Amino acid sequence: MRQPAVAGQFYPLRPENLEKELKQCFEGLEIRERNVLGAICPHAGYVYSGKVAAHVYAALPKADTYVIFGPNHTGYGSPVSVSTDTWKTPLGSLEVDRELADGLSGSIIDLDELGHRYEHSIEVQLPFLQYRFDQDFMILPICLGMQDEETAVEVGNLVAELASKSGKKLAFIASSDFTHYEPANVAREIDNEVIGAILNLDIPGIYDKLYRRNASVCGYGPIAAMLTASKRLGANRAELLKYSNSGDVSGDTSAVVGYAAIIVE
Asked: Is residue 196 part of a domain?
C-alpha cells in the first residue's frame, strides 16, 4: 500500500476538509467532458494551484485508466519507474492497472516503489480524479527522474503502444509546474514561450525553449511523454485553459511559481 506522503501539507488530511477544498477549486467551473487524450496539471499545494488544476479535471472524460507522468523530485528509486502498489488517499484507495504495468516489464521503465514513496507530483492529482470519478478507474503512475527528450519520447511511445493493444480508454496526465522563483513578469514571459511550443505539440521546440531560456519547468519529461502518447493516439491540438502563478494567491510577485492547465485533444 502506497501511503499518502503529503496529505496534511499539500492538501487536507481529513476527507471532509479535502472534499470541501476540492469543491472550492471547482467553484465557477462547468463540468463538461471533452475528448481529452492528454493534459498538463500543476502539483503545488491546492491553495496555490488547485483552481488551475480544476480547469483540466472539469474537462477530463471518464477513462478506464489514467496514466500519470510525474517528475522525480526526491532522487530516490529508478531513473524511470512505475508503481504497482495500491495508492491510498484520504478519499479512498486506487488500484494500479497491473495489466499495463506488467506490460512495461523489460523496458526502460522499472517496476519500482522507492521512486514513488515520498514523491508528491503524482499523489496530488489523485484526489481530483476521485472527486470527479469516485473510485471507478485505475491509475498507472510513472515517475521520471531522467527527463531528457529521448527518454521521455520512448516512455510516451511505450505507453501509447500498450494503450493501443489493451483496447482500454486511457487519458494521459503530465504533472508539472512551470517557471520557479522568478519575478511574475519574467515567469510569465518564459512560460509563454514554453507553452507556445506545447500548444504546437512541438516536443523538440519545448526542449529548445527550456535550454535557451534556462527555464525551471520541473516536469518537462512528463510533458514530453504525455504529448508523445497523446499524438500517437490521434491528438492534434492543444489548448491553454488557465495560467496563473503563486503570487496571485500570496500577493508576493517577486519570486513566483507558474501554473498552467493545458488539454490535448
From this structure: no
Question: What's the confidence (pLDDT) of residue 115?
Answer: 97
| Ramachandran quadrant class, 193 (left: phi over 0; alpha: psi -120 to 50; beta: rest) | alpha
Burial 104-116 (b: 16+ CB within 10 A, else e): beeeebbebbebb
- What is the 3-class SS of 197-259, one letter each residue? HHHCCCHHHHHHHHHHHCCCCCCHHHHHHHHHHHHHCCCCCEEEEEEEECHHHHCCCCCEEEE
- Where on the phi/psi map is residue 113: left (φ > 0), alpha (ψ -120 to 50), or beta? alpha
Q: Which whole number is the average pLDDT over 33-52?
A: 98
Find out whether 60 and 137 touch, Cβ atoms under 8 Å. no
Q: How many domains does the chain have?
A: 1
Look-up: residue for cell 522563483?
181
* Section 46-67 average pLDDT: 99
Which pTM does this prediction carry?
0.98
Q: Per the domain annotation, does 159 fall within a domain?
A: yes
What pLDDT, in 10s, does the model give residues 8-22?
A: 999 999 999 999 999
Domain of residue 95: give its range.
15-177+219-264
Query: Does residue 224 lie within any of the structural domains?
Result: yes
**Domain membership flag for residue 185:** no
Which CATH number characterizes residue 238's domain? 3.40.830.10
145-201 pLDDT tens trace? 999 999 999 999 999 999 999 999 999 999 999 999 999 999 999 999 999 999 999
d(CA 167, CA 176): 28
